[in-house]
Amino acid sequence: MRIIFFNILLFLTMLAAWAQPKTPSGMPLKLRLQSMDGTNGCAVAWNPDKKLYYTVVAGNVDYPIDIFTEAGMWISSLKSGVDNRGLWYNSKSGRLEARSNDGQLYAYSFKENGEPINPEQIRDEVGPADQNVGTFFKGLVYYYGAGIVTSISAKGKKMRIPLTLAADNGGYNRYSMGFTGVKNYEIVLHNYQNKNLEFYNLKGKKTSTISLPDEIPHAEQFRFSFANNCVWFYDVDTRTWSGYKIL
Q: Are 38 and 58 in contact (CB under 8 A)?
């Protein structure tokens, strides 16, 4: 009986260790945009059903969504149709979703090849009419601003999570965040000043910090995302997202 209990305890300990964020290492996955419009890479989304990545540039309805294979090979590009402030795949609806700079929620259906089509407004408000880049997990849209993460449900219910940041809240990407879905490490922020990632739980307590490789382009706003267990950083000079697996 003691042996069984010990084995269970060991398994749970190992499981917790596996779930902890790991410092990025090795060569990142590269998603190089072929379109030339816009400056601020806004988000990376992963479609596990089609095994495709989607990237989007903020700032204009004519700015692109670029589509890539799982290995990072560029497939095609199209106008987003939404002045985008967040992009993700909703596995429940089977559609790609986007938050606009007006705070509205749009959904894209797919062609058979995975290309998104026909952005349709499906909700009036999923966050402020501002630059905050939305992200998504299990029916809730999350966005970050000024030391607070806010979630908003499908029925419009909001919950604020004040984070235990440094006293001056300085050095953090102003608009972008990631949501990992991993217990105790759900929220991830990019601190461009300290060149690291900080993880927080749903009570707002910081639970982990990991350093970042020297080659990462650090940005004060936009150009940071989380998708498919990777953190993504956008280089405006090469128009490339670099993804580092941390979970």
A: yes
